[in-house]
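User: I'm putting together a teaching handout on how multi-component assemblies are represented. Below are the sequence lines for each component of a complex, exactly as they appear in our records. Could you produce the 3D structure of the whole assembly as structure tokens, so the students can see both representations side by side? Please keep the chain order the same as the input.
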Amino acid sequence: MINTLYLPELREMLETHNSQGLRDFCEAIHPARAAEFMAGLTSEEAWEVLQHGDNELRVDIFSYFGKVKQLEILETQAIEQVAEMVAELPPDDRVDLLQEISPQRLELLLSLLPIEERRDFQRLSQYPEGTAGAVMTTEIAKLSELLTIREALNEIARQSEDYETIYYLYIVDDEDHLRGLVSARQLLTGMKHPETKLYEIMDTDLITVDALDHQEDVANKVAKMDLLAIPVVDNQHKMLGIITHDDVIDVLREEATEDAHRIGAVEPLDVSYLRTSLLTLTWKRGIWLAILFFFALLTAIAIQEYEDQIEKWVWLALFIPLVISSGGNSGSQSATLIITALSRGHITLSDWLRVVVRELMMGLLLGAGLATMGYCASIFFVPDHVALLNATMFVVPLTLLLVVMCGTLTGSILPLVFEKLGWDPAMMSTPFVAGIVDILGILIYFNVAIRFIG
Amino acid sequence: MINTLYLPELREMLETHNSQGLRDFCEAIHPARAAEFMAGLTSEEAWEVLQHGDNELRVDIFSYFGKVKQLEILETQAIEQVAEMVAELPPDDRVDLLQEISPQRLELLLSLLPIEERRDFQRLSQYPEGTAGAVMTTEIAKLSELLTIREALNEIARQSEDYETIYYLYIVDDEDHLRGLVSARQLLTGMKHPETKLYEIMDTDLITVDALDHQEDVANKVAKMDLLAIPVVDNQHKMLGIITHDDVIDVLREEATEDAHRIGAVEPLDVSYLRTSLLTLTWKRGIWLAILFFFALLTAIAIQEYEDQIEKWVWLALFIPLVISSGGNSGSQSATLIITALSRGHITLSDWLRVVVRELMMGLLLGAGLATMGYCASIFFVPDHVALLNATMFVVPLTLLLVVMCGTLTGSILPLVFEKLGWDPAMMSTPFVAGIVDILGILIYFNVAIRFIG
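Assistant: Of course. Below is the structure of the complete assembly, with chains in the same order as your input.
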């Protein structure tokens, strides 16, 4: 998806050192578009183009580059200029990037950063990946409650460039304890009474998150409350940072893709599909295929136990895929429903009994449906000297009913158990559900067969 | 997840008609929290509580209620009061709700709405579900480019309550053609020069969407550009509405859950898991189980063709689940990766050749891995009078290699084909991939067996 529209012109301007043209390019169009047009350039060329915008624009356009190009620039381009730009990056993005460059380069870069940015990096990089602390930004508009609306407006006007958002203003005391929130909207509508103090209009019933909360929980909170940003506090309610709506969107998409990958039995990728190397992909898929292979081997061992039966009634073999896939599919349906409901907060662990009862009922209904279809199928596949009401005709239907119930039960209980144990239910459930249900399916099938025909 | 903390108090206040207490409850806490505390009340009780806040608060709290309760209130409570509140709802939420109430009630309600809100509803409800037009809101701050910063600030201060966001101000001409964008941040930092005209500072390189664009594409655009809101225009670039960051979050979560459900072979649910009736769930799962059942029957027919071989070499039956699951799993991995990459915009149709070649390579690597494991398994399961290098020992490994390659190919090509045809790749791919790969797997397996042993 490389936009080649401007590529020849950009390259020509670079060759002819057309500074004016390159500056115009940087300044005239939206930074996101500029980055898009530069996607076809090498990281060296891209960095050279960026030198023609001012530092603010440079940061803006750079932040829309793909991560691979960003890292290449940080690793290879002249360290002083790179450090100058890194100092201006939003703190959360800075941490994300710096954590992926080589240790030597990182040390060099840090030594060139202003002391405040360096400390900020050290503080932020302590939070484990996936926590609120690791996503938050520290460039927040913090004000004293004793300011008037007029003073607050002047303050923002003066400093707005330093803040990631000026639409939520946080009111803190001398020790940075969070006291309240005033929105830019409140300030603007309050301009008629410019001498009003902030404490008179501030909202004090605040929704906050802890720095160690999981990013997915944070994102769910922001989504539920329709917030622009959410403050991150420590256990003494001291203000550490904020997480803004655009970070929340990134978190939600990342988590949703991870969930989908796990449901599809792929270890989540760190970068996009085409950027992931073949070997990494092989590993991330191979590990699950190997686990599932192992389960299938157990199924083979289970079938081996019944080789005599298969030899006697070969038609039993025909239904092995049907039995296995019916159990596996109903199980993975249940697992998918429970996993997504858990991750969206539609159910919690305390609902477990309701969920299990529901899934049992579902298993009964779906199993009965498949059993009916299984009976009809038996008419065609079971050797034709068997009468319609002979016990043999009921082997497949009864198996299907039991297997589907077994699938919905396993598919609903396993994710709940994983959630209870503090493991990611999406991470392990679906393959395990398939594995367990496959083996149980074979055992049910041949036991029913032995009872009914044997 | 019903919060029962305030329930007894609320009920007591209702019984004793404690207006002051109920007003305090509505006013003192965040509307989202108030709604949470009221989750245990009946819709009648909840509505009665809301009567104690002013209309603005009523709308705020109401908008955090669950959809079931919202609809119950609209359907059953006194129509005049309901209409008064409906008139104040954000236009996009209003359309969402009104489209689900009974036609008679809708007619009554519409007749009680102010003419402007009624027209607005009629206009918005024309857009098909899932389009930008159906998600957008029409309460936008539109200004003329000839205003000065001071005039613009006054204008917002005066009218801010009418707009969903005042942080992006849209500049339009007399006929509502979109000309530019000024952010509240620009206005605030520009206060030092209050006589500057808006056209001097407005941003004219705007990112817009068409009213008929799919909501998922819109959400992806907003996410990519880190926007607070995106304007919706018609084909003459007339401004129709905006879609704000909170709507984008809702769209992204909705789409991600739908994708996950489809990957798990469940028709996406309209409401949350516990609120979906058993019958609806049965239908949404049963339809896919039935389709997959049909595929499994085709597999049975395929196996039937080879009954003679199974009778001769019963051990072949042991590996049927292994062959089928290896193909199915590698296929669903590929499908999952391609579907998520497509929906996040990481690949497009033009990448098809690269994707297919990658998946073929993956198939080779993964298939070779599974084949090695399959050879080891053969040592245990193939009857022991066969020598280690006898052709029979290679039936399972070769089958696995071919089946996995067949899985990765089908799993990557089908979603691309569905995308090309304009169908949702997530909607149909995974079950189809499983079905096709299962049958091909059986055909490959027995053909390899016949060549090598027969």
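A couple of points students might notice: The mean pLDDT of chain B is 87. The two ends of chain B are 63 Å apart (CA to CA).
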